[in-house]
Design goal:
Strand content: 15-25%
Keywords: Lyase, Menaquinone biosynthesis
Number of domains: 2
Distance between the termini: 16 Å
CATH topology of the largest domain: D-Maltodextrin-Binding Protein, domain 2
CATH class of the largest domain: Alpha Beta
Function: Catalyzes the dehydration of chorismate into 3-[(1-carboxyvinyl)oxy]benzoate, a step in the biosynthesis of menaquinone (MK, vitamin K2).
Radius of gyration: 19 Å
Shape: globular
Pfam family, one: VitK2_biosynth
Pathway: Quinol/quinone metabolism; menaquinone biosynthesis
CATH superfamily of the largest domain: Periplasmic binding protein-like II
Oligomer: single chain
Catalytic activity: chorismate = 3-[(1-carboxyvinyl)-oxy]benzoate + H2O
Largest sheet: 5 strands, mixed
C-alpha cells in the first residue's frame, strides 16, 4: 500500500547540503494534517517516490524521468546550476578526453549525475568507458579506476583535498556543451496523493516555497551550519549556495527536457518523458 493509503502524508527530504535552503525553515509539525519527513540520499527517495511510499518531496531529475507518468513536478523548486555546481565532480588522473575507453568509478547514491556523465561522455566525446558503482570514497575509487565521480557533500570535501587530480565539474561541462542550465533535483508529488489529499499537498508546496524564500533572504544561518558540520570557510559556503538555483522556471525546464531527451536517445530511459506540472487547486483523475 502506498503512502496515500495512510493517514500521514510522507515527505521526502534530500540529505545533501545543496537542498538545505528549501527545507531549512520547513516545519512539518506546523502543518494542519499529520506528516512524516524522511531524510535520505537521492537513491532511496527516488525509490519511494516511484512506489508511492513517499507522497511528495525531492528526487533526482533522472528518477523523475523514469517515474514521470506517476508524478507531477512542483513549480519554483529545484536544485539547478547555470554553469559550475561545485558538488558534481569527476576526478581523474588525466584529462577527460583520455577516459573515452577507460574505467570510471561512480557513486552509488544518485542516478542523475551518473547518467549526465554517460550522456556527456557519449555525445560530447563519442566515448564508451566502463562504469563501476562503488561507495563514495575517492581514494578507494581511484585504486580501481581511471576516474571517480562524486556528488554532494562527498564531492565538496574531496575538492578540498590536495590530491593532484584533474577535477571536471559536470554542470560546467554541460553548460559549455549545450548552452543550457542543468537541473539535478526536482520536487514532485505522486499523482495518487494529489487525487486523495489535495489540501495538505497544497499546504506543503506553499510551506516549501516559503522556506526557500526565507533561506535565500539571508543565507548566514545555513552557511554557519554548513561550516560547523563540514568545515570549510564562510566565503566558500556563501559562494556555493549563491551559485545554486532553487527555482524551477522556463530555463530549468528547457535544460531538464534536453537532459531527459538525451537519456531517452541513449536508452537510459525507455520512454519519452512528458513533463507535467502540479498547479494550485490541481485535482486529477487517476487513470485505471
Amino acid at each position: 500500500m502506498g503512502a496515500y493509503g495512510n493517514n500521514k502524508t510522507i515527505i521526502g527530504k534530500i540529505k545533501y547540503t545543496n537542498a538545505w535552503p528549501i527545507f531549512y525553515y520547513f516545519d512539518p509539525d506546523a502543518l494542519c494534517e499529520p506528516t512524516e519527513m524522511i531524510t535520505a540520499v537521492p537513491s532511496l527517495l527516488n525509490k519511494g517516490m516511484n512506489d508511492g511510499s513517499i507522497d511528495i518531496g525531492a528526487l533526482s531529475s533522472f528518477a523523475y524521468g523514469l517515474s514521470s507518468n506517476k508524478l507531477l513536478l512542483l513549480p519554483n523548486l529545484s536544485v539547478s546550476a547555470d554553469g559550475p555546481v561545485q558538488s558534481i565532480l569527476l576526478f581523474s588522473r588525466q584529462p577527460i578526453e583520455s577516459l573515452i575507453r577507460g574505467t570510471i568509478a561512480v557513486t552509488n547514491t544518485s542516478a542523475t549525475s551518473i547518467n549526465l556523465l554517460k550522456i556527456l561522455m557519449n555525445k560530447a566525446l563519442d566515448g564508451n568507458p566502463t562504469y563501476i558503482a562503488l561507495e563514495p570514497d575517492l581514494k578507494t575509487m581511484m585504486e580501481v579506476a581511471d576516474a571517480a565521480l562524486l556528488i554532494g557533500d562527498n564531492a565538496i570535501k574531496a575538492s578540498w583535498e590536495d590530491h593532484g587530480l584533474y577535477v571536471t565539474d559536470l554542470s560546467e561541462w554541460w553548460k559549455e556543451w549545450t548552452g543550457y542550465s542543468m537541473t539535478f533535483a526536482v520536487w514532485a508529488v505522486h499523482r495518487d496523493a494529489v487525487e486523495n489529499k489535495p489540501e495538505i499537498i497544497q499546504e506543503i508546496v506553499q510551506a516549501l516555497q516559503a522556506s526557500k524564500r526565507h533561506s535565500l533572504s539571508d543565507l548566514t544561518p545555513i552557511v554557519n551550519e554548513a561550516m560547523t558540520t563540514f568545515g570549510g570557510t564562510q566565503d566558500y559556503w556563501k559562494r556555493y549556495f549563491e551559485n545554486l538555483c532553487y527555482d524551477y522556471g522556463e530555463s530549468q525546464s528547457q535544460g531538464l527536457e534536453l537532459y531527459l531527451r538525451y537519456a531517452h536517445e541513449l536508452g537510459l530511459i525507455q520512454h519519452e518523458v512528458r513533463m507535467e506540472m502540479w498547479e494550485e487547486n490541481t485535482r486529477i483523475r487517476v487513470k485505471e
